[in-house]
Design brief:
CATH architecture of the largest domain: 3-Layer(aba) Sandwich
Bound molecules: pyridoxal-5'-phosphate
Number of domains: 2
Distance between the termini: 59 Å
CATH topology of the largest domain: Aspartate Aminotransferase, domain 2
CATH class of the largest domain: Alpha Beta
CATH superfamily of the largest domain: Type I PLP-dependent aspartate aminotransferase-like (Major domain)
Helix content: 40-55%
Largest sheet: 7 strands, mixed
Number of strands: 12
Strand order of the largest sheet: 2-8-7-6-5-3-4
Structural class: alpha/beta
Number of helices: 15
Length: about 400
């Protein structure tokens, strides 16, 4: 039989990293020790109070049955309490909160709630690829909104033509931003609310890195600004915050009608989050401040060591205020893919090429702080010791 895949799949941008993956595998097979700064997945374990809660809850047969679609009320209450403490925003646990099987799941399904075939959605570039994929799967057309360094990686809303804005159903945002580490100001969010109201556009804010910040610069929730809850939905995740990427749990909060339509779609697709994991999630939120203080401390130390080491060898970089990523300009004359391949071959250091996040990511690489301090130092040392690459880097610093 000849299998012909659906057109929606052929519209998804190709997976660019296949060659790099092969190169990585080859390097590892040769027994060379690769330092992988390419992974957006915490290397640290989930804090033990959360694991203990899961183990207890896993033995309780009450938790073995289908969970409720929208999440345990106690889970949603814990979210509401945490949200009030952290952002000063009141949420109704019954109507303004929904549990997700990770925020990626919710974001991917969200387009199905609002997009009709042919509708536009405003998608930032560079960005996490799920926004675009979700729009395409819903039959919509992603419209690229560039995020430029000279604009602090915030979209320039005035540059969006009125006829585009009028046709757009959703504006996707993500601050703190993967891959650039940029954060949004209150001013910017206020502009977004005004723009959204003017053109009747729903704002979908991905806040997966809201708790991964440095020097006490607490990122804002989109719902903190006036009118935010009227026009928006915000996606949160336990993955990066509590080193829980494998657990698959997240949640969405915001406008009651948006939560309701998301619930309508999800009811027809999945059957909720394992209750024992939700119980562990309650524990995590109760102890969020204490647990995160520690996790943040580790990333801050790694970030400072990385920045200091790169500066010592003369590589100028932008210091991120949040996320565990560094977004670094590469020497001219290389594509991000070529430069990444070179770093891997010559230094045994893996990074992520900017092009993987969209065409406006070209000219950059993303480095993750998801390895220990020793490896960070070793990676920078290897770069410095490779004369060819190091010369190129120095050339572009003036
Ligand atoms: C990691 C990541 C997510 C996915 O989080 P899950 O809750 O694990 O699905 C969402 N958005 C961004 C920007 C991310 O980097």
């Amino acid at each position: 039989m000849k299998i012909k895949k659906a057109e929606r799949l052929t519209q998804i941008p190709p997976y660019l990293f296949a060659d790099l993956d092969k190169l990585k595998k080859k390097t590892e097979e040769k027994g060379e020790n690769l330092i992988d700064l390419g992974i957006g997945d915490p290397d640290l374990p989930t804090p033990s109070p959360i694991i203990e809660k899961l183990s207890q809850a896993a033995y309780n047969p009450e938790n073995h049955r289908y969970p409720s679609y929208e999440g345990l009320l106690s889970f949603r209450q814990a979210i509401s309490q945490w949200y009030k403490r952290r952002f000063g925003v009141k949420l109704d646990p019954q109507n303004e909160i929904i549990a997700l099987i990770g925020s990626k799941e919710g974001i991917a399904h969200f387009s199905l709630c609002l997009i009709n075939p042919g509708d536009l959605a405003l998608v930032p570039d560079p960005a996490y690829p799920v926004y675009k994929a979700g729009v395409i799967f819903a039959g919509g057309r992603p419209f690229t909104v560039p995020l430029l360094e000279e604009k602090d990686f915030l979209p320039c809303l005035e540059d969006i033509e009125e006829k585009v804005a009028r046709k757009a159903k959703i504006l996707f945002l993500n601050y703190p931003h993967n891959p650039t580490g940029a954060v949004a100001s209150k001013n910017f969010f206020e502009e977004v609310v005004e723009f959204a109201k003017k053109f009747n556009i729903v704002v979908c804010h991905d806040a997966a890195y809201s708790e991964t910040f440095f020097n006490g610069h607490r990122p804002l929730s989109f719902l903190e600004v006036k009118g935010g809850k009227e026009v928006g939905i915000e996606f949160h995740s336990f993955s990066k915050t509590f080193n829980m990427t494998g657990w698959r749990i997240g949640f969405a909060v915001g406008n009651e009608e948006l939560i309701k339509v998301l619930s309508e779609v999800k009811t027809n697709i999945d059957s909720g989050v394992f209750q024992a994991i939700q119980k562990a999630g309650i524990e995590a939120l109760k102890k969020e401040e204490e647990l995160n203080e520690k996790i943040r401390g580790i990333y801050q130390k790694r970030r400072d060591i990385m920045i200091e080491s790169l500066r010592e060898i003369g590589w100028k970089i932008r210091i991120p205020k949040a996320t565990f990523y560094l977004w670094i300009k590469i020497p001219r004359g290389f594509s991000s893919m070529e430069f990444t391949a070179k770093l891997m071959k010559r230094c045994g250091v893996a990074v992520t090429p900017g092009i993987g996040f969209g065409s406006y990511g070209e000219g950059y690489i993303r480095i993750s702080l998801t390895v220990d301090e020793k490896k960070i130092k070793e990676a920078v040392k290897r770069i410095k010791e490779d004369k060819t690459i190091y010369k190129e880097i120095l050339k572009c610093q003036n």
